[in-house]
Write a structure and sequence with these properties.
The protein is α/β, with parallel strands linked by helices. The protein is 30% helix and 20% strand. The strands form three sheets. Strands 1, 2, 3, 4, 5, 6, 15 and 16 form an eight-stranded mixed β-sheet that branches. Helix 7 links the parallel strand 8 and strand 9. The C terminus is likely disordered. It catalyses: L-lysine + NADPH + O2 = N(6)-hydroxy-L-lysine + NADP(+) + H2O.
């Protein structure tokens, strides 16, 4: 077991923390930049790893990359990435603002590799975080525990690992090999043997469910897929240009200042612009699949609408789903070999953040306008939460749209906070030889 000290520890090397890393790498003072570390539990930097399907496109303009809306001249832009890998002409000729998802994932890895002062480490999983306090209770920083036993101490913390996948309680008793959430689809489906005609249930009525429904027909040739949803059917995203103005970074100020009832109305009305719809191209593709299936007389594809899954049990290697028809009230059983969940993410704060809040004695998790966790008492350290603040910062908070602007807001807040509290100790450089890990946060000297 070893221990290290850094100035800023960012948990998760996804778009949120990468945008912050780019802002720090470009503009932060030397000690902060050299003392910033991103840790990623996977073995590489990516984006929507489980849904990197070959033909899947982003629904967000390439101009909403890690940096362009903050610094259009930055070398970390998506355009510069295309130029550096020799594909700028091809992308321009494509005539689209929407890159392929795989392309964006490659861009994020390129950006991480291009950092000159900030460090990124992969295959480093943080299992827990605890506050560091002085004897009189002042929070001076944080101690992160990693899966390999190492601990990392920091004064500033940025949590950007996204929300926890939502697995409805009714599916909780199924064996892992019978159930795949969309966040794991690509690697998990590749491990499923293709030696029999699987009966597959796809649960959900939005983009991720639709993409899995289309993809599984190729990934498991000869399968019989059934799509199950609570809604009346599949719909397009609400994507008018007027609606999209609510995704502008400048709209965050208006949303944050709005009264709670107005925020609730805004989130409800914008639900179909992100969560409850499909991209027009995917909707057309699915309809054509159903049309051709009927035209050929196969009747292999099935869609069940207005249905709740009220039971899911294993029976002899099969999954027996109990479906309740919301119109008639009747129930039916559906036997399948595999369940794919396009059920999105838990709306609550991530489990790690909730646990940290309990350790801090917080009644609720709240952040300031600039994403800093609100603490009950005095603190010389700070924690920033990214991508989990829809309730206070709007529906764009978990999306790419505000990355560049948010990274600058967090950096400026961190610099202002740092200037208000003079550090009492010099932080060791990242390449300092590891020292034995302390037994607990109380035994770690303060870096505030």
């Amino acid at each position: 077991m070893t221990h290290r000290e850094v100035h800023l520890l960012a948990i998760g090397a996804g778009p949120s923390n990468l945008a912050l890393a780019v802002a720090i790498d470009e503009t932060a003072p030397e000690d902060l930049a050299r003392g910033t570390l991103l840790v990623e539990r996977d073995d590489s930097v990516s984006w929507q790893r489980g849904m990197l399907l070959p033909e899947a496109q982003s629904q967000v303009s390439f101009l909403k990359d890690l940096v362009t809306l903050r610094n259009p001249k930055s070398r970390f832009s998506f355009i510069n990435y295309l130029h550096s890998v020799g594909r700028l002409d091809d992308f321009i000729n494509l005539g689209s603002f929407l890159p392929y998802r795989v392309e964006l994932a490659n861009y994020l890895q390129w950006a991480a590799d291009s950092l000159s002062r900030v460090r990124v480490e992969t295959s480093r999983e943080v299992t827990s975080i605890e506050p560091r306090r002085t004897a009189d209770g002042v929070v001076t920083g944080w101690l992160a525990h990693l899966a390999d036993g190492e601990t990392i101490g920091c004064r500033y913390l940025s949590v950007g690992m996204g929300r926890d996948p939502h697995v409805p309680e009714v599916f909780g008793g199924l064996r892992r090999d019978l159930l795949i959430h969309s966040t794991e689809y690509v690697p998990r489906i590749a491990a499923v043997p293709q030696d029999r005609p699987y009966r597959v249930a796809v649960v959900g009525g939005a983009q991720s469910a639709a993409e899995m429904f289309a993809a599984v027909q190729q990934d498991l040739p000869g399968c019989t897929p059934t799509m199950i949803m609570r809604s009346i059917g599949l719909n397009n995203y609400e994507s008018s240009k007027f609606t999209n103005e609510l995704y502008f970074p400048s709209f965050v100020d208006q949303f944050h200042a709005a009264r709670p009832p107005a925020r609730t109305q805004l989130l409800a009305e914008m639900h179909r612009s992100n969560y409850a719809g499909l991209a027009p191209g995917m909707l057309d593709t699915l309809y054509r699949q159903f049309y051709l299936d009927r035209l050929g007389g196969h009747r292999r594809l099935r869609m069940i609408t207005m249905a709740d899954v009220t039971g899911a049990v294993e029976d002899g290697g099969e999954v027996v789903l109990t479906l309740n028809d919301r119109m008639s009230g009747r129930t039916e059983e559906l036997r399948v070999d595999l369940v794919l969940l396009g059920t999105g993410f838990v709306s609550a704060m991530p489990r790690m953040v909730r646990t940290l809040g309990d350790t801090l004695g917080l009644d609720s998790i709240q952040v300031t306008r600039h994403y800093r966790l609100v603490l009950d008492g005095p603190a010389t350290g700070a924690c920033y939460l990214q991508g989990v603040n829809e309730a206070t910062h709007g529906i764009a908070d978990s999306l790419l749209s505000v990355l560049a602007a948010r990274s600058d807001e967090i950096l400026q807040d961190l610099l202002a906070h740092r200037a208000d509290v003079t550090p009492a100790a010099v932080i060791p450089a990242l390449d300092t030889a590891p020292v034995p890990a302390p037994r607990s946060a109380e035994s770690v000297p303060s870096i505030a």
